[in-house]
UniProtKB/TrEMBL annotation:
<dbReference type="GO" id="GO:0016301">
    <property type="term" value="F:kinase activity"/>
</dbReference>
<keyword id="KW-0460">Magnesium</keyword>
<feature type="binding site">
    <location>
        <position position="208"/>
    </location>
    <ligand>
        <name>phosphoenolpyruvate</name>
    </ligand>
</feature>
<comment type="similarity">
    <text>Belongs to the PEP-utilizing enzyme family.</text>
</comment>
<feature type="binding site">
    <location>
        <position position="174"/>
    </location>
    <ligand>
        <name>Mg(2+)</name>
    </ligand>
</feature>
<feature type="active site" description="Proton donor">
    <location>
        <position position="245"/>
    </location>
</feature>
<comment type="function">
    <text>General (non sugar-specific) component of the phosphoenolpyruvate-dependent sugar phosphotransferase system (sugar PTS). This major carbohydrate active-transport system catalyzes the phosphorylation of incoming sugar substrates concomitantly with their translocation across the cell membrane. Enzyme I transfers the phosphoryl group from phosphoenolpyruvate (PEP) to the phosphoryl carrier protein (HPr).</text>
</comment>
<keyword id="KW-0963">Cytoplasm</keyword>
<feature type="domain" description="PEP-utilising enzyme C-terminal">
    <location>
        <begin position="5"/>
        <end position="284"/>
    </location>
</feature>
<protein>
    <recommendedName>
        <fullName>Phosphoenolpyruvate-protein phosphotransferase</fullName>
        <ecNumber>2.7.3.9</ecNumber>
    </recommendedName>
</protein>
<keyword id="KW-0479">Metal-binding</keyword>
<feature type="binding site">
    <location>
        <position position="198"/>
    </location>
    <ligand>
        <name>Mg(2+)</name>
    </ligand>
</feature>
<keyword id="KW-0813">Transport</keyword>
<keyword id="KW-0670">Pyruvate</keyword>
<feature type="binding site">
    <location>
        <position position="48"/>
    </location>
    <ligand>
        <name>phosphoenolpyruvate</name>
    </ligand>
</feature>
<dbReference type="GO" id="GO:0046872">
    <property type="term" value="F:metal ion binding"/>
</dbReference>
<dbReference type="GO" id="GO:0008965">
    <property type="term" value="F:phosphoenolpyruvate-protein phosphotransferase activity"/>
</dbReference>
Length: 316
């Protein structure tokens, strides 16, 4: 059967034995909403707001931000919408934000939340636009900080969100230090979402912008799976949800492995939703767990993929 024939474009994400894994969309702005809705997204797991700030000489004003955020929130009445606050720097440079200095290693420099800590008025303006956009929509807004490194970062972000009147603030796990210390970060975060693109880059010390680093840029690296497992188990102990919103979630086989590792939702580019939904519907949670264990026992990403596929026949 053609892959498309196995795709499933509606219904909540769940395994064959009924374990629910909400399937959410990654979006860059309102223009991505039609595809998210057509492909049955249960909400937005990652709204990359930096697209609103790209390629312009000034930051978007309050009204412009409120309008964009409200359009997204209104598309999912009653559903959750996770809005990531501005993730500038490194692979996402912005013209109008003053750089701290020439950085020899931008990926290891002042990016994401680090930049907002130097420019808090930019973050405060965004949070206040988000708070206003949420008003009267009945949507469930969750704001999320990128590039959080430690509990101190998370506490700082939670305080900024609370000051803006936003109830739900969480963090991305993209830095290995945060994955290892998720238990401590959980005191200051309502939810977690693992960014496997950056987590792979930092776990394997392999620049995501440099071509040809091969297996070190592969989220199937067992070390990355170990970090996901550590994050999922310690956040669960703390009573917090822990999704994945990196590209890894869009790979149907890896989505099943992530489910087996204990992640609680999967967010991806909308076009990947039907195949991931169909894959989950064909496997049981115990099989996902066996596949996750087999993948973690492998020596490298190729071996991990093969080991998982053996536990999940018919998916690869
Ligand atoms: C990630 O790092 O996995 C992620 C989802 O964020 P971005 O790709 O926007 O850095
Ligand atoms: Mg990232």
């Amino acid at each position: 059967a053609r892959a498309a024939a196995a795709a499933q474009s509606t219904g909540p994400g769940r395994t064959a034995d009924g374990h629910g894994i909400p399937l959410l969309a990654n979006i860059g702005g309102p223009k991505d909403l039609p595809a998210a809705l057509e492909n049955g997204a249960e909400g937005v797991g990652l709204y990359r707001t930096e697209f609103l700030f790209l390629d312009r000489a000034d930051a978007p004003g309050h009204e412009e931000q409120v309008a964009a955020y409200r359009t997204v929130l209104e598309a999912f009445p009653g559903g959750r919408v996770v809005v990531r606050t501005l993730d500038a720097g490194a692979d996402k440079p912005l013209e109008f934000l003053p750089a701290a200095a020439e950085e020899p290693n931008p990926a290891l420099g002042e990016r994401g939340l680090r930049m907002m800590r130097r420019l808090p008025e930019t973050l405060d303006a965004q949070l206040s636009a988000l708070a206003e956009a949420e008003r009267d929509t009945g949507a469930y807004l969750q704001v999320m900080a990128p590039m959080v490194t430690d509990a101190e970062d998370a506490a700082w972000f939670a305080a900024a969100a609370a000051k803006a009147g936003i109830q739900h603030a969480g963090v991305m796990i993209e830095v290995p230090a945060a994955a290892l210390r998720a238990r401590h970060i959980a005191t200051h975060a309502d939810f977690f979402s693992i960014g496997t693109n950056d987590l792979t880059q930092y776990a394997c010390a392999a620049d995501r912008e440099t071509a040809g680093l091969g297996r070190f840029q592969d989220p199937w690296q067992p070390a990355v799976l170990d970090l996901v497992a550590a994050s999922a188990s310690s956040t669960a102990e703390a009573g917090r949800s822990c999704g994945v919103c990196g590209e890894a979630a869009a790979d149907p086989l890896l989505a099943c492995v992530l489910t087996g590792l204990g992640v609680t939702s999967l967010s991806m580019g909308a076009s990947a939703l039907p195949l991931v939904r169909a894959a989950l519907a064909r496997v049981e949670l115990a099989q996902c767990r066996a596949a996750a264990e087999a993948a973690r026992a492998a020596r490298g990403p190729e071996e991990a993929r093969k080991a998982a596929a053996e536990q999940l026949p018919g998916l690869a």
